[in-house]
Design brief:
Oligomer: single chain
Number of helices: 26
Radius of gyration: 36 Å
Shape: elongated
Order of helices and strands: HHHHHHHHHHHHHHHHHHHHHHHHHH
Strand content: under 5%
Helix content: over 70%
Length: 448
């Protein structure tokens, strides 16, 4: 028996020595198993369950960098971005050359809009892997988000040096070139993206917009049309083409495109506004009013809709209705000169000259260098026989806009009313020279 005990002791000693030599550590082995369990949960998109196992792995071995890294990934999936960053930071402490931990820390910081921090993290990842395509692209994205278009272009260029067939990057580099007014460069990038992947409608839209900026309307329309042919259910494509048609005064085509936008997206208030603009251009004032009204049903705080509907009501001589719309716009934002000026014009049409003068004065407090508003206030003062005040306003309008024929015309009439015959004649003559033919009618009337 003593011999057996001795043999067993020797066996235990042998096993212990073997385990020590082989580096076996019960906790480390358990930690790795927990990581594997966590990975299985992550693969099933059970990120909460995965975090539990990764945490157990960390409790078993606090130097298990993979457990911290994977837990960070799971937290990021659950939008616990700050918690994810903490885990990625811990993984980096354990392995300072962990480029993936830097990369994913950058992604989390970017999502938190900490673009400076994201860029720093991506830069660190690139230090350890100079061919890390994703890091260059993501750093470019963060620079783009931080409005550093040129920096973004440099990173996207690096991506394309590594992977010349990356169509998406040609597209987004083209977008950034468009932002800095490099329209030819943008077109070259969009064209390259199309060569690689000819079935992406937004690339054609981007190139079409760049062609439009270069005044090449035929190429622009060709691209807009291809974009819609690829996907005829894209509201943005119709909207862009509709605005291009409107700018070319192809109003019926613009209206048709904006109508398609509305069919695709019936709650698109901007499409109603745009269609209203196009209808206004063809003097369909009631149709425009209907569209602006529809936009306001969708968004009751849409100031532009109130302003434009008010303008259209003036066109159909519904001055009271126009005043109501301009007043509503002012209630939403009392710092819009155009709202006061337009309401003043409506009041002037109703012969409420005092109210009109009050509105024009408020408008000038906001926009003190607006010649049209000075001229409008001058006309209202003239209507109240305040010719001295009117002359002062017309003079101010002329100082701001020396070619304002109407200001010369009305100042001339006010001067005549004050007995300033020669000066009045000179103003009327100047108005005629500037193209206002009514000035010559007035000259004949007052200088017979």
């Amino acid at each position: 028996q003593n011999q057996n005990n001795s043999e067993m002791k020797l066996s235990y000693l042998f096993i212990t020595v073997f385990l020590i030599i082989s580096g076996f550590d019960g906790n480390t082995q358990t930690s790795e198993e927990y990581v594997n369990f966590g990975n299985e949960k992550s693969n099933l998109s059970d990120y909460g369950g995965a975090i539990i196992f990764y945490t157990k792995a960390i409790e078993a071995n606090q130097t298990n960098g993979l457990a911290y890294f994977n837990r960070g990934l799971a937290k990021a999936k659950l939008k616990n971005l700050r918690g994810a960053i903490t885990d990625f930071r811990k993984a980096i402490e354990i392995n300072p050359r962990n480029e993936k931990a830097y990369y994913y820390k950058g992604l989390a910081k970017n999502e938190l809009k900490d673009y400076k921090g994201a860029i720093a993290a991506y830069t660190k990842a690139i230090e350890f892997d100079a061919m890390y395509t994703k890091a260059y692209k993501s750093r470019g994205d963060s620079k783009k988000n931080a409005w550093d278009s040129r920096g973004a272009i440099a990173d996207y260029t690096k991506v394309l040096e590594i992977d010349p067939k990356f169509a998406e990057v040609y597209k987004i580099r083209g977008d950034e070139k468009y932002k800095i007014n490099d329209y030819k460069g943008a077109i070259a990038d969009y064209t390259k993206a199309i060569e690689i992947d000819p079935m992406t409608p937004m690339v054609y839209r981007g190139r079409g917009k760049a062609w439009k900026r270069l005044q090449n309307q035929s190429e622009a329309f060709a691209d807009f049309n291809i974009s819609i042919d690829i996907n005829n259910n894209n509201a943005d494509a119709y909207s862009i083409r509709g605005n291009a048609k409107k700018n070319l005064e192809y109003h019926s085509g613009a209206i048709a495109d904006f109508t398609n936008v509305i069919k695709i997206d019936p709650k698109n208030e901007v499409a109603y506004i745009n269609r209203g603009f196009a209808k206004s251009d063809i003097k369909d004032h009631k149709g425009a009013i209907d569209d602006y009204t529809k936009a306001l049903e969708i968004d009751t705080m849409f100031i532009l809709a109130y302003l434009r509907r008010g303008d259209e009501k003036i066109n159909i001589k519904d001055y009271t209705g126009a005043i109501n719309d301009f007043t509503k716009a002012i209630e939403i934002d009392d710092n819009i000169a155009d709202a006061y000026s337009s309401r003043g014009n409506a009041k002037k049409s109703l012969q409420d000259y005092t109210g009109a003068i009050d509105d024009f004065t408020k408008a000038l407090k906001i926009d003190e260098n607006n010649a049209i508003i000075y001229s409008s206030r001058g006309i209202a003062k003239k209507s109240l026989q305040d010719h001295t005040g009117a002359i002062a306003d017309f003079t101010k309008a002329i100082e701001i806009e020396p070619k304002s024929a109407l200001s010369y015309y009305f100042r001339g009439l006010s001067k005549l009313k004050l007995g300033q015959k020669d000066n009045g004649y000179m103003d009327l003559s100047k108005a005629g020279e500037l193209g206002y033919s009514e000035a010559y009618v007035a000259i004949k009337k007052y200088y017979r």
